[in-house]
Amino acid sequence: MTNLITVSTCNLNQWALDFKGNKERIVESILIAKKQGSKLRIGSELEVTGYGCLDHFYENDTITQSWEVLAEIIKDARLYDILIDIGMPILYENCRYNCRVIVYNGIIQGIRPKKWLANDGNYREMRYFTPWMKADNYSIKYKLPFVIEQIHNQAFVCLGNITMNCLGTKIGFETCEELFTPQSPNIDLSLNGVEIICNSSGSHHELRKLDKRLDLIINATKRCGGIYLYANQIGCDGDRLYYDGCALIVVNGEVVAQGSQFSLNEVEVITATVDLDEVRSYRSSVISRNMQAMANDNLFASIDVPFRLQEGEANSSLKPTTKKTIRYHSPEEEIALGPACWLWDYLRRCGGPSGYFIPLSGGIDSCATSMIVYSMCDLVFKAIKDGNKKVLSDLQKVSKQSLEWIPESPEQISDKLFHTCYMGTSNSSKETKDRAEALSKRIGAYHTTLNMDSIVAAMVTLFEVTTGKKPIYKIFGGSPTENLALQNIQARLRMVLSYLFAQLLPWCRNSYGGLLVLGSSNVDECLRGYLTKYDCSSADLNPIGAISKTDLKKFILYCSEHYENFSILKDFITAVPTAELEPIVEGQYTQQDEADMGVSYDELSEFGYLRKVEKLGIYSMFVKLLHKWGKTSNSLHDNLDGCIVTQLEDLDNIDVKKSVLTRGLSPREIAEKVKHFHKFYAINRHKQTTLTPAYHAENYSTDDNRFDLRPILINSKFEWGSAKIDLLVDAMEKAEKEIMKLD
Ligand SMILES: Nc1ncnc2c1ncn2[C@@H]1O[C@H](COP(=O)(O)OP(=O)(O)OC[C@H]2O[C@@H]([n+]3cccc(C(=O)O)c3)[C@H](O)[C@@H]2O)[C@@H](O)[C@H]1O
Ligand SMILES: Nc1ncnc2c1ncn2[C@@H]1O[C@H](COP(=O)(O)OP(=O)(O)OP(=O)(O)O)[C@@H](O)[C@H]1O
Ligand SMILES: NC(=O)CC[C@H](N)C(=O)O
User: Fold this and answer.
1) N or C: which end of the chain has fewer CB within 10 A?
2) Choice from 483, 487, 489 to test ligand 1 binding pocket (greatest atom count within 8 A of CB)
């Protein structure tokens, strides 16, 4: 026997505070679900307001307008004959809750507030919402606002930790973060006989993160059995995060439907026909599970809904959806797609600007940023080819083209939207100038080349006339201060020129509207502070601000293979990174990034990870890197932690001494690197506070405004921790000498 039921979930491209647009997308998703024969549709977390309203959640307007949107949905008879689960904020006794509102045929069946709020990393739900902490099966009679009551005379609804007892199956809810908690609601829901679990999320993209989310869902339903529907927001809803959709339908640990992770579609509904009997036989044959279910108290307020979701057996045309292989993107693809979708949403939603402008240096970072813009053009082109009328009309509007204009290639889109500029000085080389030009040409962007020596000279002359002193470069005998000042003025002037060009280039091309300026400092440089404050790093948006140089290089390589005729990219990969801010003497660069920084990009990525993700201070970082980068063999590693605790007494132990250092860096070298990193990190932390809003791509992002909250003024000596490091290094060196003697 089969017990088939057709259910839907979706990716919604919501936008914070766009109540009108959000409502339209919700309605469209319900209509699509109905068209696909569905009896249940779930939407993303806080879909009515958009997930990322931040402090706008404090405004009562946000709540009242949510009710107004819901009222219109309730009134709309086209949305009947399907159970709908809608996310919005609700105020009860002056506390704000993050809720699911369950509606059937214009009647609100129940409201389920989120219990376990997301409050780490990018998330601050506790700033706006109160977690629902009442006893589990306690519910209240919630008085509905007049705007709802007047529609069908419904004055009250049950609010609490509810489940829906439909005719023939039970439905329950967990909201985003709750899936990630050790005691996820889905466990109790399944033990209480809930067969369909609806998870509505506002979950953001991070490189290599998708498998964590999928693993949790798959494992939950593998262990407990059940049908799991996952809905998510997709796109940029007004801030640094990209929500990465990937709506999912899973049955007993098998994926039967998966939505896109990166897409320009505003509404994507996925639907599957699933068999409730599969859940019943999966669960009931596991006796240990059944004993737990039997012993489990009823933790939920159960609401009866007079609606049968199952299809009658007479509907023989219906077949259960077959299982699918999960689709993952490689990290390089994720870089190509995530920031590109984010840039598209940002551009079309921000109104006036008619494209992007980038100062293109001929180096890796601005090249990677440009390739992301190219990827955006490519996605837009493909969407138009696939018949996406909204994308076409958005493109025509942004690029100020007529309704007749239809692009024939990504390059034609790039020509309208993307502007690049090489800003050379006498310190620049022909190689970087040519590379920038060649890349821009291949992408199809509108390129300009300029020489700004006269402006730099004018500034330096002004300084000289005012103070009577003339700064000169180090290689000509100047001090480090003079040398730095001469570099920084070039870098800062590039920023001023960028905004001038961004404002006027469309006008030069007989169009109108300005351009958004793109910055391209990567996460490693930001962490080390290897950038001039308020230079080209101070742009409008930075697509790569949370991506490491190592990943960017891999991304360029991927682009050179993925897109046709991009062999020019190989030249970027092999070029030595240099700022070209100091004079080139006899054809040789005097300045190379890694030498200048005193640390390699790979090492910076490591420091960044240990600092932010592993949360290590200076001393623990040193110890961790001793294990990782050190010459010590495993037996010394094994003893190292004990040594630290017992003030290195163990190093007198002959076995430890025998574990001779064979490869890697010495403890002193590691200590120097760790201290060096901390010194520059601390000195330059102030730069993070002014950094351009960047796409959040990594869990070791340095974004001071939302994600990585640190003091601006830090004592760069870290005296206490450094002294402990020195003590350990001395002891290890002493031990090493003794080993040498023994040998
Ligand atoms: N604690 C603090 N809190 C708030 N502000 C603080 C501060 N300390 C300095 N400042 C401010 O910051 C200024 C120093 O920062 P900044 O002007 O950036 O100058 P600074 O960091 O000294 O120099 C820029 C660095 O970026 C490197 N770089 C390399 C490659 C390319 C580029 C490029 O731009 O293309 C740059 C360059 O070699 C140099 O190491 C001070 O003059 C002061 O105004
Ligand atoms: N000659 C140039 N023409 C145009 N823009 C430049 C030039 N030099 C630097 N820039 C801009 O300043 C930014 C920072 O310059 P920097 O030399 O630090 O390069 P970077 O951060 O290593 O990036 P890239 O790899 O793109 O050179 C660059 O990403 C670029 O946007
Ligand atoms: N909105 C949420 O609850 C999101 C939190 C969750 N940890 C995530 O990244 O997906």
Assistant:
1) N
2) 487
**In terms of pTM, does the model score above 0.80?**
yes
| Together in a domain, 473 and 341 | yes
Ligand nearest to the CA of 209: 3
User: How many domains in the chain?
Assistant: 3
Copy the structure tokens of residue 586: 């006899």
Contacts of 119 (CB under 8 A, 6+ apart): 125, 126
Shared domain for 246 and 352, answered yes or no, is: no
Which pLDDT does position 140 carry in this prediction? 95
Q: What is the token pair recorded at 245?
A: 């959709």
What is the mean pLDDT, run by run of 10 residues, along the chain of 743 residues? 91 98 98 97 98 98 98 98 98 97 98 98 97 91 98 98 95 97 96 97 94 94 97 97 98 97 98 96 95 89 92 76 94 97 97 94 96 98 97 97 97 98 96 97 98 98 98 95 96 98 97 96 93 94 95 95 95 86 72 80 93 96 95 50 44 42 79 97 95 94 93 96 97 89 74
**Distance between CA 436 and CA 564 in Å, rounded?**
18
Phi-psi map region of 300: left, alpha, beta (phi>0 left; psi -120 to 50 alpha): beta
178 within ligand 3 shell (Cβ under 6 A): no
CATH number at residue 535: 3.40.50.620
> Is 570 a domain residue?
yes
| Residue nearest (by alpha carbon) to ligand 1 atom 23 | 532
CB 44 within 8 A of CB 266: no
Q: Is 203 in the pocket of ligand 3 (CB under 6 A)?
A: yes
Q: What ipTM score was computed for the predicted complex, to two decimals?
A: 0.93
Give me 194's structure tokens. 């809930």
H or E stretch including 277? Answer: helix 276-284
Rg (C-alpha) for the chain, rounded Å, is 30
Residue 316 belongs to some domain of the structure: no
Q: Are 299 and 335 in the same domain? A: no
Contact 449, 419 (CB under 8 A): no
368 and 296, same structural domain?
Answer: no
